[in-house]
## 1
Amino acid sequence: DNDARLIIINESPTYLDLRAEVLLRGDVADILPLISQEVLDE
């Protein structure tokens, strides 16, 4: 255990979903640009 955090972006459930700190459902091609824009706007 190295205190790593897990973020999952996926359209369907995965076996690691229960371990994820953040779980985003959807197409990564749609979600990642939105996250990037939010970070750049801060």
## 2
Amino acid sequence: ALIQKRTSIRGWPSGTAADSEDCVKFAQANGIRTMVTKFPLDKAQEAYDHRSSARFRAVIVP
């Protein structure tokens, strides 16, 4: 459905690699865990639709 509609999913850079590394270290040191909604690959359209209502991150997994 994404290809047929010529739809794309985009991201944006949010800091440097060092910033990301510091963030991960901080999370590990303080017991902070991510909250992720996982969607199987065949539910990619549902994940795409869910992105605007998701309070947390949605990830498509193979």
## 3
Amino acid sequence: MLLPFAPLMKPPADTSAEQWLRRCVTAAERAPVEKAVRDDLVATLGIFSALAYDEAFVNQLIKEEIVQESTFFQHHLERATKRLEAETERRTQEALEQGLEQGLEQGLEQGLEQGAKKGAIEVILSFLSSKFQPRAVYALRPLLENIENLEQLKQLGSAAAEAESLETFLQTLGAQTNSQNGTDTP
């Protein structure tokens, strides 16, 4: 099906570029095929549309949920997740090694704790920056560095991996911070 390429074609004479893109998106969303195929059509149409149209306009027309359900997106998400896990493992190993060095200078126990904490923070930031705006994510570093409890950081690492939005993660972070400060302790 050539529908994803349609936005790259010249629109009919009586149709503006924006109207043409709307018609293309509507045609893809109504294509008489299985939902999974339709989601892939819409996702690839969005990719090609971004070559010729303003990205913000394309994002207004194409629902993010449809793109996220496409096999194309899922495939790339899986690949990115595997790369992220490998990078996270590497960074964790580096952080542990750095922590070990610091531990020899300042005391083995304190260094390992700091290295593990730094590694946990890097894991959290890596997970979040792969899914959300990296600039906003790295602004969280000072908040994460204020958390002393390694177990809380590990829990935040799991929350970062599962977070569907940065706001959801921030709520979890707020609850952890309140718990650490004793304002939420049972």
## 4
Amino acid sequence: MPLLHISTSAPPAEESKRAELLKGLSALVARLLGKPESYVMISLAARADMSFAGSIAPACYAELKNVGTMSPGQTENLSKVLCQELSRGLGVP
């Protein structure tokens, strides 16, 4: 079961925006991994205390767990696409 766990210090968006982000990420992870969306779980923890590069500006940490192996190219593409989506959806750089 693929699991994308996201922690962010960004303030949570309104409920409808969070739901839209979660649904979009679920579909995206399923597509990128080639797995049924019914197996995908997305976890979003907002308002986490975080520091990155000595700054307490809004930040995000995402961890993707997956059964099976991924090539370096797949890993690079997943990282790029997920970071773009998280930046757009959470407003973090």
